[in-house]
Q: What sequence folds into this?
C-alpha cells in the first residue's frame, strides 16, 4: 500500500474551468487515499507555477498548481487572483505576456494590436511601453526636444 495525493482539475469545481486556468493546471488538496501499489498505472509531476515556468522542456507528465482546493468546503485558495492587462483577466501561463518597462503593467500579447505583436516578435530587445507611458514620454520628449524611439504597446480594444 502507498498513499496517493489527489489533485483536481479546475472543471471538478462547482465553478468549473475559467479562462485563466492553464491547460496543465491542477488544484492541490488535502485529499489522500491509501491504494495498492499495483493499481498505480501512471504518475505525473506536479510543480509550483514558478517551477513549471522555469522548466526547459515541459513534458507530458508535467503539470502545475497554484491553488489549493478544500474538499470539505469545496472552495479554493486563494479565492481571488489579481487581474492584469486591458482585458482585466488574471494571468494564464498559456497566454504570453509582456511588461511595460516604465510602469510595470503587464499585457497579454494577444491583447495588443497586431502591429505591436509583430514588432515584439521581430525586435525582442526593444524597450516596451504601454500607450499611456509612451504618450507621457512623448510629451516630455517634445518639451525637451528629444526624439526617442520605443516600441509602443497599444491594445486594440482599450477600454474608454
A:
Amino acid at each position: 500500500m502507498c498513499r496517493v495525493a489527489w489533485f483536481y482539475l479546475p472543471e471538478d469545481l462547482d465553478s468549473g474551468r475559467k479562462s485563466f486556468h492553464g491547460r496543465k493546471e491542477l488544484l492541490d488538496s488535502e485529499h489522500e487515499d491509501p491504494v495498492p501499489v499495483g493499481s498505480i498505472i501512471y504518475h505525473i509531476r506536479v510543480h509550483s507555477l514558478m517551477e513549471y515556468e522555469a522548466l526547459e522542456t515541459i513534458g507530458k507528465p508535467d503539470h502545475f498548481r497554484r491553488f489549493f482546493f478544500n474538499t470539505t468546503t469545496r472552495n479554493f485558495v486563494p479565492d481571488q487572483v489579481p487581474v492584469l492587462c486591458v482585458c482585466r483577466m488574471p494571468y494564464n501561463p498559456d497566454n504570453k505576456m509582456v511588461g511595460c518597462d516604465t510602469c510595470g503593467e503587464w499585457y497579454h500579447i494577444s491583447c495588443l494590436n497586431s502591429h505591436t505583436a509583430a514588432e515584439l516578435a521581430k525586435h525582442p530587445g526593444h524597450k516596451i511601453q504601454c500607450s499611456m507611458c509612451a504618450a507621457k514620454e512623448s510629451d516630455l520628449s517634445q518639451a525637451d526636444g528629444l526624439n526617442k524611439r520605443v516600441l509602443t504597446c497599444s491594445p486594440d480594444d482599450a477600454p474608454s
Remarks:
- The radius of gyration is 21 Å.
- The CA atoms of residues 3 and 34 lie 4 Å apart.
- DSSP finds three helices and twelve strands in the chain.
